[in-house]
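Exam revision sheet. Question 4 asks you to relate a sequence to its structure. Input first:
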Amino acid sequence: MVLWIIIAVVVLLVVVLAAMYNGLVRLNVRADEAWSDITVQLKRRADLIPNLISTVQGYAKHESSVFEQVTAARAATVSAAGQGPAQAAKAEGDFQAAMKSLFAVAENYPDLKASQNFLDLQAQLTDTEDKIQASRRFYNGVVRDFNTKRKVFPTSIFASMLGFKQNKEFYEVDESQQAALQQAPEVKF
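Answer key, structure tokens:
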């Protein structure tokens, strides 16, 4: 009888550990998938930017500094996407500020604002921005679930033994970048 109780306890312990491990693996894979979704959308947006710059350049040839800022911010965003959420969020803040400057320039050219090509690019960019926001929210939700599961009892006891030593990092824009995003761009002629 004692042997059966010991076997039952061991089997129960194995089942509980397997369930904890599988839950952590499932959330870890979902977080990686969500991060991949963000990078795909960032790449899509980065691919739209050269066309947008070309369109605006045709109307505003003397705004080269704005085009250089957007191009540099685009390159930084693409390279930062592979470096994790903190670096991607920083590059994203810089990119958003550069894009605000580009659209401020576009506001000064009525012919450009009426251009079908510009309007189509702007619509695609808006759609992509919406998808990036949705991807970020999904990623942060999965990271929240993973971090919560990793910290709750009894998983917290076994998580590091099961190979899950660290929490995942949220995709957050820091306060200084949020302030920069809310400032109106300065356009000089």
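Marking note for examiners. The first helix runs from residue 2 to 59.
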